[in-house]
Design a protein that fits this description.
CATH architecture of the largest domain: 2-Layer Sandwich
Helix content: 55-70%
Radius of gyration: 45 Å
Structural class: alpha+beta
Largest sheet: 4 strands, antiparallel
Number of domains: 2
CATH superfamily of the largest domain: EIF_2_alpha
Number of strands: 4
CATH topology of the largest domain: Alpha-Beta Plaits
Strand order of the largest sheet: 2-3-1-4
Number of helices: 10
CATH class of the largest domain: Alpha Beta
Amino acid sequence: MQRDEVYVVDVWRILLREWVWFVAGMLLVIAAVAGFTRMARPQWEATGYIQIGQVAGVPPGQDPKVEPLARVLERLKFEPFQNQVMARIGIRDDAPEARLYRRSMKLEPLPYAGPLVKFTVRGWSPQQARQFAEATVAQLQALHQQLLARPLAMTQARLGEVQADLDVARNQRQQLMLTAAPDAAHGKDAPSAGAASLLLATTDTEIHGLQQARGDLALRLSPNYTYDTSLLWPVYVPRGPAFPNLPLLWGVGVLFGLALGAFAAIARHAMRRANAPTVAFNQTDDAGHLPTHGGHGAAVRRNAVASNPHAGAGSP
């Protein structure tokens, strides 16, 4: 074993010798962790998934979403929007709850799943965290409904026009069918009946096109293709608080306590060795002689014997 190497057994001996300092360092960290867990206010985290609304009646080549995904993310992070969310549930902008809401807002875009926006917010209770998440979606939904109103109204108006044209074409078809009836074809109105037959074929084609357009518009306005911004699933709030994370906090605290205790014990051992009296290998006494084995204690005893020769003599 080399003198400049430190082995595990050496550290173990130091810890046994300086166990008071080791325990004191560990207890200090444990007390700090216990105090923090008692003083820290628990925070619960709510998770939600936002489905961005769309209207499918837009011209081909345009995005049917009411807002692009990037713009929705910027809106959710915009502080005035967050203040509107807090005002919606009656919380001031400078309240601690509002600061917690703004600080804890985290967004994760999911462009290949809808697109969707995954977001998390925190509150002082499970109910408050859920309220924050639902108010966020409600405020975004209200803004998107205003943006959806115009294209949705245009699509519905187009559907109404197609339906009106279809009704007119059907009425015209009924009249043409009466004009092109077999009885009219053999009478004096035979030329009119022939023209009515040609118009009837054209009207049938027009009715078929209008029915196809109406079906396409009705399909676009169905809930599968036109919908408001909403929560894809209900807001999820775990049972336990997200902060402080007690298992993680105590695990890190115990490890740090062990490290601090070991450091305190080793530091105390080093100070003890530094303060211990030592004799250098070239140190001499007052007579110029090297000290013999026994160090300073042996030199004191030799001086005592020299001053009293009978003190060191044994009994005869």
